[in-house]
Specification:
alpha/beta, 2 domains, seven-stranded mixed sheet, Quinone Oxidoreductase, Chain A, domain 1, 15 strands, homodimer, 338 residues, Rossmann fold, globular
Chain lengths: 338, 338
Amino acid sequence: MPTNKQIHLASRPEGEAQAGNFRLVTAETPPLADGQVLVRHHYLSLDPYMRGRMNESKSYAQPQPVGQVFQGGTVGEVVESRNPKYAVGDKVVGFGGWQEYSVVDGNQPGMLRKVDTAHVPLSHYLGAVGMPGVTAWYGLVKIIAPKAGETLVVSAASGAVGSAFGALAKARGCRVVGIAGGPDKCKYVTDELGFDACIDYRQHPDAKSMSAALKEACPQGIDGYFENVGGYILDAVLSRLNAFARIALCGMIAGYDGQPLPLANPALLLINRVKLEGFIVSEHMEVWPEALKELGTLVAAGKLRPRESIAQGIEAAPEAFLGLLKGRNFGKQLVKLI
Amino acid sequence: MPTNKQIHLASRPEGEAQAGNFRLVTAETPPLADGQVLVRHHYLSLDPYMRGRMNESKSYAQPQPVGQVFQGGTVGEVVESRNPKYAVGDKVVGFGGWQEYSVVDGNQPGMLRKVDTAHVPLSHYLGAVGMPGVTAWYGLVKIIAPKAGETLVVSAASGAVGSAFGALAKARGCRVVGIAGGPDKCKYVTDELGFDACIDYRQHPDAKSMSAALKEACPQGIDGYFENVGGYILDAVLSRLNAFARIALCGMIAGYDGQPLPLANPALLLINRVKLEGFIVSEHMEVWPEALKELGTLVAAGKLRPRESIAQGIEAAPEAFLGLLKGRNFGKQLVKLI
């Protein structure tokens, strides 16, 4: 039985999340029962939604239990199997949590999925061809439902969701404008991801300045907005919406740590007859096959070139996660365990 | 040619609308051209949306031009006709504005509609069986789309829109909770309109108190909300929404006069995966026939008993309108001209 290093949630944050909220624990992997497989994780996924789950309070996800392995998506390789559907060596995507190994019931639907790594690197199944990619797809296709020629905006544009959103929107003939932090990320968003423009929010630290920047980048106004951030950026976007604009509300990371962030002028939602919808992609499993197929094709064709920030070793997970919450990552944040 | 007393918009309000923003003007009705009819107005409709049109700024309706007849819905009788489709004595609904007579091109589609007054009093075509009723219908049927057994809330419940909303929602097997100002209105909402409960917002003048009152009136939480008001009531409703709740955003009268009213915690829209949609009913003319048919049937069957506040004479229109904005009306506010 291999030794299995794990990260547990040690305590809930008061205000900002801290390294002390996590604890490194060493466990043994238990012997397999019939139907189970042992997966060695190659990569852990770090995602902004996890911050919400650290809080006790009602959130869009169930709270992460204290004193247990921190939950999250993983990709890896089957290293032992007592299930005829999985062979040693199979590459799999699952929800194994922040640990080096997980024991999975291979007969429970949706727990484990075999993936092809011939055309798509394994790690991308945690990003562009995984939950973040499907998140972008759902918000774009099912909520924003754009027509060719419309102008769409996405915040956190260089991240896993934002970069997929850009490629999917360009494939539908839209003008796509990103918002990201710093000149390097903005350059990547336009030069590598193919966005039409990108606004550096550090240069526009309030709603008025951001609104002016959006006016310049979106001369025809904004028809659709994919929200990952909240706060003053949402206020600024609202001031530039066209009539009948659609907003896909996916994340509001700006408010995760403390007091709610108000929306300055909700009457704009009425004035512009806006449709806004909050969603969580795991509640829409029916779209995953269609979305993953399109995303895989875009990656294989080189039309979506997702960038990854990779931390090394399970011990690095908490700091990498805290950095993600502050925007220190550049592209999809992963932890590599092999 | 009869003399035609009119109310014009004299100036745009700065802050609260005032009587001085209106001006009484006496004009002559011009001779009819071919195809035109002369309508003598029996009732003018006063509606909250008109306040938004008094402002210069971008709103959900085009601004009302200064120095012209104040626009609005009217019902009346054809008193002269040079159009074979209309005979003297026909009862008609139109958009004749705040004046005693209007000259209408009877060939232009949508300008004038003949109505049956055998089962529905003429004035109701400006309320329950008119634009306000269709507004309630659209928000309920097309946005909230309730299932039987769900709990729905509507603000301004004793008004023209709110009372129609209640009858339509009860017909669909929902629990309906109103919010209104003062014990008389609340009693009318429950006893005459058949709502399951009504909350007096004067007894609950802040979000915390309103939220507690909503919790009591909506023990199963809120599945749908029809918003006429905005401000702290919307904050309170958001705190009681169920997952996958729907909000029809029809009016935010609380913010018409001045500074935008912020929304305290927009993250609740994400946490509860809410669908919110702003709308203006005149952009959905395709639903009017179906909606008017249901509303007319409810009124004829005595299942929707709309109440009216009636001011007498064109000169009374500005004060009655200002009273409406302060909630001084009780039910649909009209001005009677005959």
